[in-house]
TrEMBL record:
GO molecular function terms attached to this record: NADH dehydrogenase (ubiquinone) activity; NADH dehydrogenase activity
Entry's family note: Belongs to the complex I subunit 5 family.
Stated name of the protein: NADH:quinone oxidoreductase/Mrp antiporter transmembrane domain-containing protein
Gene Ontology terms describing biological process: ATP synthesis coupled electron transport; electron transport coupled proton transport
Glycoprotein as UniProt keyword: no
């Protein structure tokens, strides 16, 4: 689902992606007594996290890369639910929402600053191959983007650890 950057931040960080995880988390007391269902949820989570990470690495479009990264993070949440860790899945859901919103809003700033240089076509302004020099041209956005990325990577002093 594509849209303007603030809408992408809302959709991919908090609302739409949280619904499925939250539904499975609410139904977890029903599933926990069935080991086959829990194993299936873990398998789906594992497949989703590897597929999402692979597709995120293969993208050139910054917003698509972040969207596939969200898919990968949802796989981690499903895996946590599959092994019965309700609190870890919901904690990751909340911290992911904040970190991913920061990344989407940062990507919007990068795209906006790229448009005068490469044109107003999404094919060019969202292409990560053409981006460079963030530290020189937009240092605050670069720092925020770095903090969001490090948070999703699970670096210890940050939220997603």
């Amino acid at each position: 689902m594509e849209g303007p950057t603030p809408i992408s931040a809302l959709i991919h960080a908090a609302t739409m992606v949280a619904a499925g995880i939250f539904l499975i988390a609410r139904l977890l007391p029903l599933f926990i007594s069935l080991p086959l269902i829990m194993s299936f949820i873990s398998l789906i989570g594992t497949l989703t996290l590897f597929l999402g990470a692979t597709l995120a690495l293969a993208q050139r479009d910054i917003k698509r890369s972040l969207a596939y990264s969200t898919m990968s993070q949802l796989g981690y949440m499903m895996l946590a639910l599959g092994i019965g860790s309700y609190q870890a899945a919901l904690f990751h859901l909340i911290t992911h929402a904040y970190s991913k919103a920061l990344l989407f809003l940062g990507s919007g700033s990068v795209i906006h600053s790229m448009e005068p240089l490469v044109g107003y076509s999404p094919d060019k302004s969202q292409n990560m191959v053409l981006m460079g020099g963030l530290r020189k041209y937009i240092p605050i956005t670069r720092t925020c983007f770095l903090w969001g990325t490090l948070s999703l990577c699970g670096i210890p002093p940050l939220a997603c650890f």
